């Protein structure tokens, strides 16, 4: 359960795998329900040698624990962590470590590179692992660029989760339109228009620079007085990559922070929908191929596996509800081999009850796990080998439910036809 990806944005399948790891960790209990399972959150920038010396102190303190078995178990876990992190290095996001004697008297060690930086150092000893801070990091957080643009000024902000940052607040020097009259009025108007154009161009460049370079965002929402009727967003000065990210425009009366706040309120529904836009687009692509009978899709576990074998897959779509683990078991009495599939939330129960499970052939209870496969990880590996992408689709929207219910949760969009169409 070690993973090594750092700071770059993780794909949906990587986040899915992390979520699965957390689900498994949450099912684990200490061997005798004692408070001997250690959860350790290490912030970035902390030296692991410093952590080791702190753990050494804890090791000393643990000898005072009243219950001798618990004390020994804590010390064993600490020793195990100290030995392991000797050969590890801290990452840009820090490290999260879980270690201790679990259910079957087994010393387990798991290290995870979190998807976001660890905020504060935590050391917890309990009868379970503490995964709450990791879970928190997995909440979806899209970054949005928010722009208020008007003749009088412009404000640029970035919104991520509940965190709003004003990046720039600019004032324009475009003169107000005065009433003059005759020749000088027309000349003055022309100068005002030139100044306004120059201002809008400058703001277009600023928008490009902010949202493509300094603060890259996934989507942009633009507000301003009568912005919905303005041609500003069609301007050539705005980079096409920015244009592609614009989700919508809203007429907003204010500028500055007040304008940004009003924009967020107006765009509330759009922001919520956007989280799922990418997933829905992929599903629409799949359903369009299906409807037009192009032969460029397939679905079902067996079919998708076959398509992957033929390197014919462009994108694998997997429902988040598909979380199966397949165990390969061998009977130590008669040598019989069987497969057993469980869902991830029953993983720990299954392992703990294995000793009472009977071999279907000889009836003995000496089955042993010789291999376990996580369906999604397995498909991911196959996808990587052939350059296919893999996307996890939630069931928070109708198209996601369709994938899960109508197509068994596994489908693929193909690069070329593989069946006799
Ligand atoms: Zn047997």
Automatic annotation (TrEMBL):
Residues 8-139 form the eRF1/Pelota-like N-terminal domain. This is Peptide chain release factor subunit 1. InterPro entries: eFR1_2_sf, eRF1_1_sf, eRF1_2, eRF1_3, eRF1_Pelota-like_N, Peptide_chain-rel_aRF1, Peptide_chain-rel_eRF1/aRF1, Ribosomal_eL30-like_sf. Belongs to the eukaryotic release factor 1 family. One of its GO terms (molecular function) is translation release factor activity, codon specific. It is found in: Cytoplasm. The gene is prf1. SMART domains: eRF1_1. Directs the termination of nascent peptide synthesis (translation) in response to the termination codons UAA, UAG and UGA. It comes from Candidatus Heimdallarchaeum endolithica. HAMAP family: Rel_fact_arch_1 (MF_00424). Keywords: Cytoplasm, Protein biosynthesis. It holds the Pfam family eRF1_2. Heterodimer of two subunits, one of which binds GTP. GO terms for cellular component: cytoplasm. Its main location: cytoplasm.
